[in-house]
Amino acid sequence: MKLEQNEMPLLFSNTSLPDVFFTEYLSQSNGDYIKVYLFMFFLSKYNKDIKINDLSKKLALPFNVIQDAVKYWEDLGVITKKNTGFIFNNLQEIELHKLYKPKVSLSSEDIEKNAQSQSRARAIENINTSFFQGMMSPSWYSDIDLWFKKYGFDEQVMIALFRYCFEKSALHRNYIQVVADAWFKNNIKTFSDLDYYFQKQEKINKIKKQVSKKLGLTRTLSQYEEAYIEKWVVDFNYEFNVIEIALKRTTSKANPTFDYIDKLICSWNERGLKTVDDVNKFLLEFKQKQKNVKELEKKTNYNNHNQRKYDNLDSLYANN
After folding, report:
1. How far apart are CA 223 and CA 213, in angstroms?
2. In a domain, 132, yes or no
3. Which of 20, 100, 170, 274 would disulfide-bridge 175, Cβ 3.0–4.6 Å?
4. pTM
């Protein structure tokens, strides 16, 4: 394949990249893909004709990685396939199109309203200063503007969104959007909503660790096991001291499962038992009920074959 760009003598030439490469592509791209791009970009200045197999040997990368890298940059529009090879497109021009294309989806009234919002402008400038060292690419401005409109976050939440992703070392659009979607699904609009959400997540994570410790689990909980715990904490609003009662009742089981624990807790929730006292009272009453039944059977000389069978699932849920 042939790579084209302006030709200059190797001894006196420099390979220059526009700053948008670092602000828009570097953090979001695979390291091997960047390696391929940089070397191909270097060769393109001299209109070099090089084969993928040669690139593989030169860069010490597998053949399929070179192919994937070329496809990756082609899909981004950074390079364009020609009959004889590829040509490198102007990154600044690509970003200029990105900058103005999203505005098509916004009405002139929305744009004017957002431009006049001093509070929002300060928030965006805060993001630029705090997380981009004052060098945020212009395309981020339109993205943030659209996220304000799409998610309805207030300014503090938008800043917190960037801070969260920055601290995760994942300050790129795809990750930010995933986090924003999660917050939106949890009805987060204001900073108070976000604070409550973090408190809830912290509580859930703490109880997950407590459950694992009480059950003696050294492995990571599965996605399904975590879903059980989230149901007990979020949907049923149970504290760990109630959940612990169910955990204790697994000691008589050879291979207790989360499904068994869930049946116990669901039974208590269906009966409106919310506190430790509620649950203990229910278990004590059931135990006494079982004792009374046994005494009645003994007095009436019921034999083992004709004993009354209880199908009520309480016998399972109240198992000692």
Report:
1. 17
2. yes
3. 170
4. 0.51
**Least confident residue range of 104-108, 196-200, 256-260, 261-265:** 104-108
Are 41 and 15 contacting, i.e. CB atoms less than 8 angstroms apart? yes
Length of the chain: 320
- Say how far apart CA 88 and CA 233 lie, in whole Å: 54
Write out the two tokens for 189.
């609009």
Contact 157, 189 (CB under 8 A): yes
Tell me the Cα Rg of the chain.
31
Burial class (CB in 10 A: 0-12, 13-18, 19+), 278: middle
Distance of alpha carbon 71 from alpha carbon 90, whole angstroms: 17
Q: For 290-311, b where at least 16 C-beta lie within 10 A, e where not — what string?
A: eeeeeeeeeeeeeeeeeeeeee
What tokens were used for 249?
Answer: 């009742």
Supply the range of the domain harboring residue 225. 205-299
- Which of 166, 165, 173, 197 minimizes the C-alpha distance to 183? 197
CATH number at residue 269: 1.10.10.630
Q: What is the pLDDT of residues 213-241, one digit of tens each?
A: 988 888 889 989 999 999 999 889 999 99
| Same domain, residue pair 78 and 137 | no
Token pair 């300014």: residue: 155
The residues facing 87 across adjacent strands are 4, 80
Determine contact, residues 106/146, Cβ cutoff 8 Å: yes
